[in-house]
TrEMBL record, chain A:
It comes from Marinovum algicola. SMART domains: AAA (SM00382). This is Sn-glycerol 3-phosphate transport system ATP-binding protein. One of its GO terms (biological process) is carbohydrate transport. Residues 4-234 form the ABC transporter domain.
TrEMBL record, chain B:
The lineage of its organism: Bacteria, Pseudomonadati, Pseudomonadota, Alphaproteobacteria, Rhodobacterales. This is Multiple sugar transport system permease protein. Coiled coil: none annotated. Its main location: membrane. The chain crosses the membrane at residues 46-69, 100-125, 137-157, 186-210, 231-253, 291-313. Residues 1-32 are annotated as: Disordered. It comes from the Bacteria.
UniProtKB/TrEMBL annotation, chain C:
InterPro entries: Bact_solute-bd_prot1, SBP. Its main location: periplasm. This is Sorbitol/mannitol transport system substrate-binding protein. It comes from the Bacteria. It comes from Marinovum algicola. The lineage of its organism: Bacteria, Pseudomonadati, Pseudomonadota, Alphaproteobacteria, Rhodobacterales. It holds the Pfam family SBP_bac_1. It is found in: Periplasm. Belongs to the bacterial solute-binding protein 1 family. The keyword Signal applies. Keywords: Signal. Residues 1-23 form the signal peptide.
Amino acid sequence: MTEVKLDRIGKSYGSVEAVQQFDLTIREGEFLVLLGPSGCGKSTTLRMIAGLESITKGDLMIGGTRMNDVDPKDRGVAMVFQNYALYPHKTVFDNMAMALKLQKVPAAEIQDRVGRTAELLGLTDYLHRKPAALSGGQRQRVAIGRAIVRTPDVFLFDEPLSNLDAKLRVKMRMELQELHDRLGATSVYVTHDQVEAMTLADRIVIMNGGVVAQVGTPREVYDRPADEFVAGFIGSPAMNFLDLMRDDTGRWITECGSLVLPSLPVDAGARRQVRLGVRPEHIAVTAGGQPQGDLDYQAEVLLDELLGADALLSLGVGKARLLARVGGTDHPVQGDRVAIALTAAQLHVFDADTGVALRD
Amino acid sequence: MTILQAPDRRDHPAGRSLARKRSMTQATSKRRGATYELERGYRRMIIPAILAVAIFAIVPLAGMLALSFSDYHLIRGSKGEFGFHNFARLLSDQRLVNSIYVMSVLSIFGVAAQVVIGTAVAVGLQKIVGKWRLGRVLFLVPYAVPHVAVALIWLSLFTPTLSPINAFFDLFGFTVPTFLTTQNGAMFAIIVADTWTNFPFAMLIILAALQGISTDLDEAAAIDGASRVKTFIFITLPLLMPALLMVTLFRFIDSLKHFPMIFVITKGGPGRSTQATNFYAYVQTFQNSNVAYGAAIAVLLFLMAALISFYVARLNQRVSQ
Amino acid sequence: MKHLCTTALVASFAMAAPFAPTAADAEEINVVMFGMPYTNGLRKLADDFEAETGIKANIDVIGQDVFENRITLSFTGGTGDIDVVHAPVIQVQRWVAANWLKPITAEVAAMAVKDDILKGPLDAYKINGEQYAVPFMAATGLMTYRQDVLEAAGVGVPETWAEMLEIAPQVTNDDRAAIALRAVPGQGFNMFIFPMIMRAYGGKFFADYTGGDLTPAINSPETLEALKVYIELINDYAPQGAGNFNFAEVNAAAQNGQVVFTVEGTGVVTQIVDPEKSKFADVTGIALPPGGPAGRSPAIAVHGLAIPSSAENPEASARFIEWAVSPETMTKIALAEPFSNFTTGSVAQNAEVIAKYDAVHPDFLRMQGEALNLAIGHYRPLLPDWPSLGAAIGENINAAVNGLMSPEDALAAAEQEMKDILGQ
């Protein structure tokens, strides 16, 4: 059980900075997820922790020791790769036993440890097969088993589920969760899938363009996104954004005057322009109703899409467009006129220029 | 030919789904019909290739076989004898025994050197990225030089009066030994020339095979605690095995045809101590006009090559499984 | 049976040779030769022939090894794709025995140029009273020596191989050996040179070649003595590695001043004394090859042009040969290429040709003439089996030179192999 400390870590390739000033302490036993779009630097960060990429700037401390120049094998880390990286010419047993053999662990102990790990992962019957004879999910389990069997201080996962089909992904995600609960090892998990991030993480680090955009629990990043990027990235479907301008009377109106807000839920200071964020699931829709409160509006359903339990409505409020998520039964359909209601507490306001969330 | 498959093919999602598709088509009879149509189409496409092989390989081979049983002599013609007399003579031919020895030494050491050097250079080149990658082309140059020219280059390098190597060591008062006037030295010279011109072939194939090995495996091994050397021995090398076997087979069979190097560098000398079997077949056929006997030697050579191919193909199958 | 065999032979070597073009019509002929100054020069003049006769000549000049495969394929198959072929005198007996060449006695008799051709080389192509080829060149053996070195050492030009052995240690120093001689095995390599020593000591290939007794007689005390001289010269007085020297290495050693003496064919000698190629050319003298107790026998190699028996248009072939050995064509090549050993006599009277070769070396044409007079036509026996005999002897001689076997054993082995080849 080990704490991992990234002290202003940076990575550059020539003049290109792939990761800038990554500053974070991963707590003992924590499950940390690095989330972001491709190219955001999350994998590079993970590989720097693993020792597969050199660290250009800053210090990496694992369990209190500086690890910048330590070989991967001496960092006490184990890694699960996106495409499993199983040794195709070795059996499942040998794949899992490789690290132990290299550590010159006695054969009997290897047998025992691999056996127990295989049991844990339901691989006992497959130990003598080669990876080619396994299904995708089984291979992923072998890859995980190879990491577990070494009882490392830190687990590193590099998009481990992205090669699996959707159903299997959900199943494996749950298995990973259970496994973490059981083992309790410090884990760093890279993904671009926000569902994996939200469900697995103790804390999520959202990265964008090599920079950490926000660090927080799933709740925090959902409820209080630090900026427009995080707000837009977390949540599905994505948050609605509307540009608002303050008129002379202090009201905030959209460009064409379709939406008018008497005031903002936060202090916008001297700003004359802000960006408003509303999550689709935070728009209350009443069929045929009339606007009553300050934040109620008349809207027309331009498009309706049934997802099953939910439906998505594309709404026109004057010239403004909003996406709303409503219950999947008896929802308004295309052409219906509806009333929508927003809740002040669920509105997000961002600086129009910097995108930083405004808070009181 | 399984030998041509990249080692991790079946590990690849596309390869896997293909394999699955194949087994599925075998399960459903309706689709089997479609596959059969497809296969018939494919079969028709290889007819020209089969014809070409028949005309350019099988017919000459049959001709050579027929000749080897005859007593045809370019000058003296034929007395009509037809049988195993040439093969009986092979058994007691001391020159043939020596030629097989020479061929084995040249092929075994030459191919071993080519594969080892080719692999080493391929591994080295694979690590080079960026604009220096173009340097790879440099290593292909020897392969592009015609064999006769290669032989001439090495003949002069091994001729003490012409060789810059000798001139260089002469400056320091060292005398480089003469290679071409002893059997072992001459075989060494031929092996060097052969290796120089043919290692790029091994290098190319190994380089392609290396590129087919995911870098993730190296990284996984690094994290598992393997040093670079151990990673190479325990991970890379086993995965290169099919490619290595293929290169060795191709080069070995090709190397049985030793001719230009010997013809230019030693003319079979000193004495006739570097007359490899193929060269000896040439001597019997063209120099001594003994066409039938030359054909018998060629048949023997063909059988040896076929035998080696067969065993290597079997070995390859075992390695692939 | 023979037909079956030849078809099979053609089939089995079909992949070995490049596909030869076939003459499309009567007005086109294919000429196949291997590379040397004359053939290279002739190729450049192909347009002249067409302008003169309206016949297009495709002159193919290829490497000697490719040449052998190519013609064997063409002749055994009787494909008729070669109309004129380069015929070294050493091969012609064998080719005639195999029925590969067309007798051209009548055609040659009708050629205006016939009386201008040196009689010795022309007669070398006469077999059983029939003419089979017309010579274009006769290379002979000559010795080159470094005048400056001999003067400095105070010794004269050796007249015999024994004198050569005496002088050799006196002209050798750390940077320079006494002599370079071809040693690499082959009837055209060491067997072009060694018979000069053998015949000087009275050695011979057969009991009585001219008398028709073809009992191998190479294992004689005379040949043994000659072989020991050859071995001593190469091992003690030639540069390092000389046991594998061919003419190219001999030539380079002389041009680079690494040796004092060489005995070589005229084709190489012209390059050794050519000021443009050798910085020692102006201090290099030319003499006849050394002799011995049994006299002096310069090497000779005759090359000519012949018509394959399968040629489809022998008249056009004959016209080509007549043009190719005509004084006009010869003179052009002698002036354009390093080609001095022409066999069309009147070329030697051409003032430009004389001037050119006098400029290279004043003694050259004269010494060449003298050597040709001394040379015997059957310097290397004119027999169908000579190529295999020469190879077998050459390989054993080379083995003795490089210490793989004793001189005695080498000659015994050579004689036995000669008997085997001749079926005795």
